[in-house]
Amino acid sequence: RLRPGGDDGQSGPLLDDLLGPGFAVLTAVPPDPALRRLAARLDAPLLTVAGRDPAVDDGGVLARWLDDAGACCVVVRPDRVVLAGTASRSGPGADLERRHAEVLRLVGA
User: Fold this and answer.
1) pLDDT at residue 55 above 80?
2) Phi, psi torsion values for 86, nearest 5 degrees
3) pLDDT band at 67 (very low <50, low <70, confident <90, very high)
4) Do the Cβ atoms of 74 and 25 come closer than 8 Å?
5) Per-residue pLDDT averaged across 61-88, rounded?
6) Long-range residue pairs from 2-10, CB within 8 A, at least 24 positions apart, any chain
7) Comparing C-alpha atoms, which of 25, 69, 63 is closest to residue 45?
8) What is the pTM of this model?
9) How far is CA 78 from the centre of its chain?
10) What is the mean predicted confidence (pLDDT) over 30-36?
11) Alpha carbons 75 and 46: distance in angstroms, whole number
12) Is the pLDDT of residue 18 over 60?
């Protein structure tokens, strides 16, 4: 279990506690207005990784995870499965909004 903010990896809040019980948006790039809009629409915390958010000082673990997945931003479902991601560093919010809308269309929501 990841504990961002703990220098020793054993202290600090659990990532699950930072994300809360619902959706979450993680980004390794500065959030654009569309990404902020999507997070607000999902009532989701928007956490910037890669040393940009003191609450997520995890030594770069999440930034590496995003990079290994070929993504710069992801939407995480309440069960902590990635719903959608994007590699677009210019306009990531619009790309994720579009992907989220596609998922909703596919599930008939």
Assistant:
1) no
2) -145, 145
3) confident
4) yes
5) 87
6) 2/58, 2/61, 2/62, 3/58, 4/55, 4/56, 4/57, 4/58, 4/61, 4/62, 5/54, 5/55, 5/56, 5/57, 5/58
7) 25
8) 0.78
9) 12
10) 90
11) 9
12) yes
Taking the C-alpha atoms of residue 107 and residue 70, their distance in angstroms, rounded to an integer, is 25
Amino acid at 15: L
Determine the Cα–Cα distance for residues 41 and 109; give it in Å rounded to an integer. Answer: 15
Residue 46 pairs with which residues in a beta bridge?
25
**What 3-state DSSP class applies to 61?**
helix
Q: Quick one: pLDDT at residue 30?
A: 87
What stretches of the chain adopt beta strand conformation (E)?
24-27, 46-48, 73-76, 82-86
